[in-house]
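Possible regression after last week's pipeline update?

I re-ran a chain I had predicted before the update to compare outputs. Posting the input and the new output here so someone can diff against the archived version. Not blocking, just want to make sure nothing changed silently.
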Amino acid sequence: MENKWLNEAFKGEVPSGFQGKVGWQSPSNIALVKYWGKKGKQNPQNPSISFTLSECCSETFISFEKADRLDFRFFFEGKENPAFGAKIEKFLLDYQAFFPFINQLALTVESRNTFPHSSGIASSASSMSAFVICLLDIESKLVGPSTGSGSLDLCKASYLSRLASGSAARSVYPKMALWGATDCYKDSSDEYAVSLADDIHSVFKTYRDSILIVSGEQKSVSSRAGHALMEGNPYAPARYAQANENIKNLLSALKSGDLDTFINITESEALQLHALMMCSNPSYILMKPNTLNLINEIREFRQETKIPLCFTLDAGPNVHLLYPESEAEKVEDYIKNVLADYCDRDRWIIDHVGEGPKKLQ
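New output (post-update):
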């Protein structure tokens, strides 16, 4: 696929007077089976499955015009951010073979998140996928009339988003996505994610995710560093084998609507992720005391009420509370009355399974 996209890249002369502005919104996602550990060129050591979110998104606009060379400026929420802009520019230069036309453009990028910057929600998946899709939109204007989101090659967008941020590969698809090669799913690949939207039970198509903000502080160890530490982790081989087994069982549960298996795998994966951090060298802990308090409260509430809610964690202290849409009223009352007390300044975000990237006017 890489050679195909390299061959298809627009390599011609950007016409004089070529200018305009494109905008895309792309969502964050929350992994159920976790991606933790890399190999090769931003490829995963094991496959992962995620929910695509709806409300937690990045909105990115790129203004472009013909220039003698690449000129790049990046603004985040109205303020120029040269440091982050330098990282994105490095991505462009590293992978300019896929975007050769950028060497003839001046680009001004304006990005914002629909969720609070200090909420602790990972934004690299949403921001980098939105950025890549904007670039593909610009390219589409060079090769022919743009027809909107229907013209977007999701597989190509996933591949290029992965190069910018691994988990961004999953954000380009609606509902749910699988990233990583596995014998359990046809056409799966380490190089791009594939959609699971047509292979899941209806209960999962409207699933809710309430994000309980334990802390919005910057993590003591970045995800990039955490992935690197997996190279020397003595439990890494067993972890990758377990993840592959969980992929097989979760795919079956998602298809049949088996909530018990879904809950068991989702919570086990969350705890395994943080156990791997504690077993790294050097070891580190990203959970906070209230992370554990929330986990205990959630499990007790599930046992008492038989409501099939469960938790997962990202690479940080915040808790994603997952539950069927049919239970939303009861669960959200419980959050307001009990769980919010464990959140930083009572902060939590109501989200749900979403439809993937959207073109902005």
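Follow-up from reviewer: compared with the archived run. The chain has a mean pLDDT of 94. Marking as no regression found.
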